[in-house]
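Hey, I was hoping to borrow your eyes for a little while. I've been staring at a protein lately and its backbone has me curious. You're getting the sequence in one-letter code plus the fold written as tokens. Would you mind checking whether the tokens look sensible for this chain? Here's the protein in full, and shout if anything looks odd to you:
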Amino acid sequence: MTSVSRTRFLHTLALGTGLALMMASPAFATAKKAETPVNDPQNTYKMLNLFGDVFDRVRRDYVEETNDEELVKSAINGMLTSLDPHSSYLSEKDFKEMQVQTKGEFGGLGIEVTMENGMVKVVSPIDETPAAKAGILSGDFISHIDDEAVMGLTLPEAVEKMRGKIGSQIKVTILREGAQEPLNFTLTRENIKIESVASRAEDDIAYIRVRSFSENTHPSVVREIEKLKKSMPEIRGIVLDLRNNPGGLLDQAIAVSDDFLEKGEIVSTRGRDPENTVRYNAKEGAIVPDSVPVVVLVNNGSASASEIVAGALQDHKRAIVLGTDTFGKGSVQTVIPLNNHGAMRLTTARYYTPSGRSIQAEGIKPDIFVEPAKVEPITQNSAFGTRSEASLRGHLDKGKTATNAAQKAANEAALDAAKTAEETDGKPEGAEGAGDTPVPAAKTVVSPRKLLADNPIEDYQLSRALDLLRGLAFYKTEQ
């Protein structure tokens, strides 16, 4: 780069950053000469000269030919990422991808995925999508995409390969537990609409799952609540599940919070200048009346917008927050488009809950701390079920009702069989060498463990939330 071109290049850079600096220069003129202000314009220009020197040396002497545009973009990204983990430069492609994610529609296969052991693991296929129709299952591992190994790719890179033009085909190789060989699927990409909200009735409790806060989240929450109101005779409580919700759009988080609040502040954002504090308040009237108790489920995967909702409902005593500490991302990012050069994502403020708590690096502490757990019944070492008063010979009946003669005879026969089994150390006749495991002589008794396997209680946190709401509803009814 010639001296003239480099000077022109520096002038161009200075126009982007120097305008604010030059406007601020009179204030710096009054500073003491012995103390150099952090943002002294003279020092800033020196550093820009340094950048120009480094840029010039790289483009002239690097071992391979470089692309000037890519070098500048990388330098900009380096500047932004050095500020905090959430500020960054978005290339034109990344900017478009971000817009796709917030709109909740894209061309793809319709699977929620994560990375495990270097491969892409299917969390769940989305209903009525190419993946679900083809028979891809939760727990499957994707080892190859179009015969290219997934091992070595990052999750975003793998997801990018699976997305593509609607109508185009893709081949995925699946490793499935129990399958002797890899399974190959050829799928046609379709327009996938991400359903950020799902709901179902848990008896008299409404369960609403919010996976993310995209453009259609609030209307979806309203639609699901109205649907449940019509399908359920009475809603005695609501579980709002925000676990593993990474956040999303601020306005959607505010709108969802407003659905449960009659009045009051939802969240405030505060930037560098105190005068720029913005407060967001609930509008009059709520879709869910105060008489309906709410439990919000959170965990370490609940971040940003989901923390805003949990914090607002917690501070207003509108909901009980149950689960584990949330992620603690309490900063506001503003996406600023850059004239045909993508955009920059810049952290411009912090979130504060209605009580004035900063979410940043603190997160939301649940009212009731419940870690995920696996619930198993305690089995009893008896092949004949549980003993009780009714199983004792000659027990009193419950009153004037006569005991059924046939039932009484059956009880006595069972007791005689139990006595015989105990005298032979639990071994039926003719079972020599069969081991120490007692075998029922009459009928097969299904163990509580088998019953649990057929009806698994997989979600302990949800189970605790449902029990809590039913207890609250019962207490309210009894008052």
